[in-house]
Structures are given as structure tokens and as C-alpha cells.
Design a protein that fits this description.
96 residues, mainly alpha, EC 5.4.99.5, 80% helix, Chorismate Mutase Domain, subunit A
């Protein structure tokens, strides 16, 4: 006998699925833009990494996380992962 799905849990899961899809689309858009940045940096002979910008972004996002009641340590780990991937792409665009 099949168990009847819990409608409350199903509603939560549908919301989570929608948020996950939005996150993927936002990350894809972010990487499209950072790819253009990497190509520009390669043409302009700029370094792939910008430590001052990275530090400012991490500080800004930690503050946003705190305001949103999200663990700032988690947010920093997440954005550091994204930044590291962007730098890797920029290095590749530069031929480094």
C-alpha cells in the first residue's frame, strides 16, 4: 500500500527545488559575466586575481549574510569557492 505524501513536506520541497533552480541560473549568469571579465583582463594584460577586490567582496557578503541571518562562515566559504573558480577561469583565459 502506497503511503500518502505529506502535503506540507511536498510544499516545502517544491519551494526548495525552485530556489535550487534559481541558484543554478544565477550562478550560470554570474559565470557568463566573470568569463567576459577574464577575457577582458587577458586582453588588457591585467592579473587574473584581485586580492583587494576579493577581500572587499568577502567582507561585504559576510555582512549581507549576517543581515540575512545566514552563517557568515558558510557564506565566506561559498564565495571563496566561487572566487577560486573564477580565478581559475581567468588564468585559463590568460594562458597561465
Amino acid at each position: 500500500m502506497a503511503e500518502t505524501p505529506d502535503p506540507t513536506l511536498a510544499g516545502f520541497r517544491k519551494s526548495i527545488d525552485n530556489i535550487d533552480a534559481a541558484l543554478i541560473h544565477m550562478l550560470a549568469e554570474r559565470f557568463r559575466i566573470t568569463q567576459a571579465v577574464g577575457e577582458y583582463k587577458a586582453r588588457a594584460a591585467l592579473p587574473p586575481a584581485d586580492p583587494a577586490r576579493e577581500a572587499a567582496q568577502i567582507a561585504r557578503l559576510r555582512a549581507l549574510a549576517e543581515d540575512a541571518h545566514l552563517d557568515p562562515e558558510f557564506s565566506e566559504k561559498f564565495i571563496r569557492f566561487v572566487i577560486d573558480e573564477v580565478i581559475r577561469h581567468h588564468e585559463k583565459a590568460r594562458g597561465a
